[in-house]
Design brief:
binds zinc ion, globular, 2 domains, mainly alpha
Length: 276
């Protein structure tokens, strides 16, 4: 980040602190200030807690975490969100991002932890934002759109022939990793059980599952089977909050993942592999 961006961020923060209305011309400035705030270049000036507070302040002031942000390195160009931008900056510092933890010095470990906590925080904010937006949509249509997208990846559409309606209007849902929040430079694969969330790696898939999707995924399962046995599935939901039982138990669909993976990746989304 340049000095200009730093100065710009300071200016926006000061305006906000003095009660400026972020919905007026400031909103665009707040958006780019958000990018500056999540950049590693800004970290010397504030503690982790202060940076998180600043991100929250900018979001409250109307910064759109989903607004397109150009990412560029060498010949590679892509457009992502503020979260993609934050990861992009994070991975540019290869020393911190790619050195085994125990090799890093104590101060480097601290830098790493600070960066990770900020990334985690903005990922949560992004997910909240997307979930909120998706709630405004027709849920059945959204579900179908996501399934159709998954079908393109797994080429189910070929096998099923005419059963998938090509003319169907798909909702332009935002496709991102449910766990880390990235949407560019990653290969996104759907949850093999519900096809409603996507993850970018096996690590993200496992973490998303154990941290929250296990509940939601069985939640959507519960909705569909609610006429049959609502109490039983609700009890199952509770049981699955901790422990690993739910991981393999559900319908044995897990083995399909391998097949999906090898065939996926032909989607039209712009990629740059830098972040992998
Ligand atoms: Zn991910
Ligand atoms: Zn699922």
């Amino acid at each position: 980040m340049s000095h200009i961006a730093c100065a710009h961020l300071q200016a926006v923060v000061e305006l906000l602190e003095h009660g400026a209305d972020p919905n007026l011309p400031l909103s665009r400035a707040v958006g780019s200030a958000l990018c500056a705030a999540v950049s590693t270049a800004y970290e010397q000036q504030r503690t982790a807690a202060q940076r998180i507070a600043l991100v929250d302040k900018l979001l409250e002031a109307g910064a759109n975490i989903l607004a397109p942000v150009p990412l560029r390195e060498g010949q590679t160009k892509a457009v992502g969100t503020a979260v993609d931008y934050a990861y992009f900056k994070y991975y540019q510092d290869t020393r911190i991002a790619h050195t085994p933890y125990h090799v890093l010095s104590a101060s480097e470990q601290e830098v790493l932890q600070t960066r990770r906590s900020l990334l985690e925080h903005i990922t949560v904010k992004l997910r909240e934002c997307v979930i909120l937006k998706e709630k405004e949509w027709d849920q059945e249509k959204l579900r179908r759109s996501k399934k159709l997208d998954s079908a393109v990846h797994t080429r189910v559409s070929k096998k099923k022939g005419g059963s998938l309606c090509v003319e169907e209007v798909r909702l332009p849902f935002f496709k991102y990793c449910y766990q880390c929040g990235r949407s560019v430079g990653v290969q996104l694969l759907p949850c093999t059980r519900c096809h409603e969330v996507f993850t970018c790696s096996e690590t993200c898939r496992r973490n998303a599952w154990s941290q929250q999707h296990r509940q939601e995924c069985s939640g959507s399962l519960e909705k569909r089977t609610s006429q049959a046995a609502p109490d039983a599935s609700r009890a199952g939901l509770k049981k699955n909050v901790t422990g690993k039982k739910g991981e393999k138990g559900r319908e044995g669909k897990e083995d399909r993942r391998g097949g999906t993976k090898s065939k996926a990746g032909t989607g039209g989304r712009e990629r740059h592999r830098k972040n992998n």
